[in-house]
Amino acid sequence: MNIETIYPFKNKLFIGSSSGMFIYDISSSGNPVKQGSFSHVVSCDPVIADDDYAYVTLRSGNSCNGFTNQMEVLDITNINNPSLVKTYPLTNPHGLSKDGNLLFICDGADGLKIYDAKNVSDIKLLKTIDGFIAYDVIAMNGVALVVSTDGLYQYSYGDVNDIQLLSKIQLTK
């Protein structure tokens, strides 16, 4: 399946692969059961989810042979049959994270983008932090850890209008 991402949420595993997103029920220990899937064009596929939606980024320029750069929002209220809500164009999206209504997307050379995702049919860009190549992010409790080609960044986003760099661990080759 060329798996790129495994995202646990409650008693489910959301698996992002080069051909789609797969949802497994893991409520029975040691016995995952496939519940649903959503196919997309061949592309690398990081995925996250909340109670009602899954957020999938697809990107080009990689070993997954993708040719599109976008985020798909999927309605997962019917877990057995996820459906596309909306597609948002991006530059070269990689990892993503969500904390409440804030959606964080690492958009490659365009840096970290922070969105208001309260209304998934009308997600709004709130802030872009650029100047680095962003690959992955974990956002939780007002702090975002961002992986880049040159280091690990830590940002405070308690006030989304005044996001602060807390620290950076420099990486050298």
Question: What report would you give on this structure?
Answer:
β13 (134-140) and β14 form a beta hairpin. Helices cover 0% and strands 54% of the residues. The chain has strands at residues 3-9, 12-17, 20-25, 33-39, 47-49, 53-58, 70-75, 83-89, 96-99, 102-106, 112-116, 124-129, 134-140, 143-148, 151-156, 164-170. It has 173 residues and is an all-beta fold. The protein is built from no helices and 16 strands. The radius of gyration is 16 Å and the shape is globular. A four-stranded antiparallel sheet has the order 1-2-3-4, with no helix packed on it. The chain has two domains: 1-89; 97-173, no CATH class. 33% of the residues are buried.
Query: Largest sheet, if any?
Result: 4 strands, antiparallel
Strand content: over 45%
- Through-space gap between termini: 31 Å
Q: What is the gyration radius calculated from CA atoms? A: 16 Å
Shape: globular
Short description:
The protein has strands at 3-9, 12-17, 20-25, 33-39, 47-49, 53-58, 70-75, 83-89, 96-99, 102-106, 112-116, 124-129, 134-140, 143-148, 151-156, 164-170. By secondary structure, the protein is mainly beta.
Describe this protein with a few key phrases.
about 170 residues; mainly beta; 2 domains; four-stranded antiparallel sheet; about 0% helix; about 55% strand; globular
Topology:
Layout: E1 3-9, E2 12-17, E3 20-25, E4 33-39, E5 47-49, E6 53-58, E7 70-75, E8 83-89, E9 96-99, E10 102-106, E11 112-116, E12 124-129, E13 134-140, E14 143-148, E15 151-156, E16 164-170
Antiparallel strand pairs: 1-2, 2-3, 3-4, 5-6, 6-7, 7-8, 9-10, 10-11, 11-12, 13-14, 14-15, 15-16
